[in-house]
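## retry 2 of 3
previous attempt timed out at serialization; input unchanged, resubmitting
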Amino acid sequence: MGLLNWGNSFAGQTGYVVADDKGCQVWAPPQLPGPDFVPRYTGACKNGRAEGKGHLEWLNRYADMKVRATWDGYFKNGVYAGPNVFDHAIEPEERSNEYVVHLGAIGVGGAGGGGDGGGGGVDRGGDEVIVFAQNSGAGVMDPCAASMLGVTLNAKSAVTDDAAVKQVMLGATEKLRGICPSMSRPTVQVNVYTVPFAFDAAGRRPLGTAVARVDVVTREISGYSNSAADDVRRQAQQAEASAKLGDAKRRFADFARRNGVTAWVTTAQLDANPFRYEGRIVGVIVSLDRMATRDTALVGSGIGDGGGVVQLKGVTPEFPDNAHSVVVAARVGKREAIAGMDPSAGQLTAIQRVAGEVCSEPACDDWLDWARGPERIVWGQDYTPPR
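## retry succeeded, writing output
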């Protein structure tokens, strides 16, 4: 076959170029661009592109047409795939200087080998594996030097199931090892997609829904993240938190209704002006300061607002210690001498316990979290529990 010269059909660009007198095309990598190099191809051709066994020489136009590189082996879709038979589809991407190599569907299960990549040979029905191959220094497509794999999940694969997704990632690396028993990179990144893979308009890969690095030898997974699973967990946490707030709000209202609470007040408000609430049953959150007598406790604020101290009557020595806040319904009395002390020590507001419940969280968050949002309690004002 004589020397062919197709002028500027490939000049100045990476991409498909005509390589014989029948118009068969090959892929020109960045290392061998026109107009510096002229391809000369002999071999099989399919749909206008080199396919199967072939021989390709790259001639340097500006060095007396000397052969710069010789590729003798197998071609797929016009791309040189190496000296061995290569059965996987290849799509070159000019903008990113990468090749998307379609490795096919994977199976599930353990380590398994090569072909189905999943051990056990169970067909998942289309978890498709692709490898983002790059050019070697000589411009030859080399999937075995890839640093990244992609997997497009089929409709039956749950991307929110972390264990299943990790198994798919392992299956993808096994798929790659099937064509590359001795990989030059011990670790690859695996991106899991929920839609068919496609470069964007700028030639960039999309972000994977799940991403991790996988050691192809030890099968260890590191740096794993899964935005879909995270979203499910976040939604579940939000639903749980919302339900918890709803339960707390109902418990708060039920306590007030059951015990005839007409206002929720702070210990500071009771200390400053008990006469406003005298004779009424109020709700108040308290914490033990100390027991004054066997049935009277000196209590301060249980909501961390630094409120004043009042006398809570009608309790027992088993009243919870100051590590626990207590929700109390109590009838408000007057100022009285401090129980157990000389009258000269002064007076404190006295309230008579009607009912009480110990909070399980500091500052009664298990009772009041809902009230720290948009639906705030107006402390000291009249309160009517919702039904």
